[in-house]
Amino acid sequence: AFLFALSLALEAWSVGRARRAVAALMDLTPPAARVLGPGGWEELVPPEDVPVGARFLVRPGDRLPLDGRVADGTGGVDQSPITGESVPVQKGPGDDVFAGTINGDGLLTVESTKPASDTTLARITRMVGEAQSRRAPSEQWVERFARIYTPAVMLIALAVLLLPPLLAGGAWGAWFYRALVLLVIACPCALVISTPVTIVAALAAAARNGV
Q1: How far apart are CA 111 and CA 156, in angstroms?
Q2: What's residue 210's pLDDT?
Q3: Are 61 and 108 in contact (CB under 8 A)?
Q4: Angle (CA) 52 53 57, round 5°
Q5: Burial of 155 (0-12, 13-18, 19+ CB in 10 A)
Q6: pLDDT score of 1
Q7: pLDDT tens by residue, 29-58
Q8: Cα–Cα–Cα angle for 125, 51, 100, nearest 5°?
Q9: In this structure, are strands 75-78 and 42-45 parallel, antiparallel, or unpaired?
Q10: Which residue, 40, 131, 139, 164, has fewest beta-carbon neighbours within 10 Å?
Q11: Pure H helices in the chain
Q12: What does DSSP assign to residue 66?
């Protein structure tokens, strides 16, 4: 009972870490985009209100609010939050850029190619959330296995306890002890406990490292 309670506590802790990692991913998107109007004026607009095809300005050091294609300007873009690439990638007119990446020392004019809900960063965040809510094939297999194996072990232990004393006149104390030993040895708790915790911890670590 202690081991199962501990595993549930560890799983809850790991899920909390994974959620914080997803929240950190969401924080990569800036709260506003500098949308360029027809007369060249700038307007700060929430990324979710920027239509596809609109042009926005990305100043040096700013994070990109949306996925898009560079329309004007050149500069290195730090894409490590999305691709893991440690060296800034040089971007120029016609090149694709991603929301959450960091503009280097160039001034870029970018044309939005996707709505805020469908950016690469938004899809990554959604996939991490879905992965946490689903059970991995190994978890499903362990659950199916435990559903059959555990009652079978209980029945065998009950048979070890009852049959020798009733049928062969064995000592109740000795066979009770042997039934308990069988239960302890055959208990699948290590298998049942380890899999969910491992899966959730791996997801949390992957999300934190931008995988």
Answers
A1: 69
A2: 64
A3: no
A4: 105
A5: exposed
A6: 66
A7: 788 899 998 877 888 999 989 999 999 999
A8: 35
A9: unpaired
A10: 40
A11: 2-26, 80-83, 120-133, 137-168, 172-186, 189-208
A12: S
E strand or H helix at 116: none
Helix H or strand E segment including 134: none
Predicted TM-score (pTM) above 0.90: no
Give dist(CA 125, CA 123) in Å, integer: 5
For CA atoms 28, 29, 34, 38, give the dihedral sign: positive
Give the SS3 label for residue 37: coil
Residues 6+ apart with CB under 8 A from 160: 175, 178, 179, 182
Pull the structure tokens for residue 125: 């965040």
* Type of residue numbered 182: L
Write the single-letter amino acid at 102: I
For 75, left (φ over 0), alpha (ψ -120 to 50), or beta? Answer: left
The region of weakest confidence among 18-32, 50-64, 89-103 is 18-32
HSE, side-chain direction, 13 A CA sphere, residue 186: 17
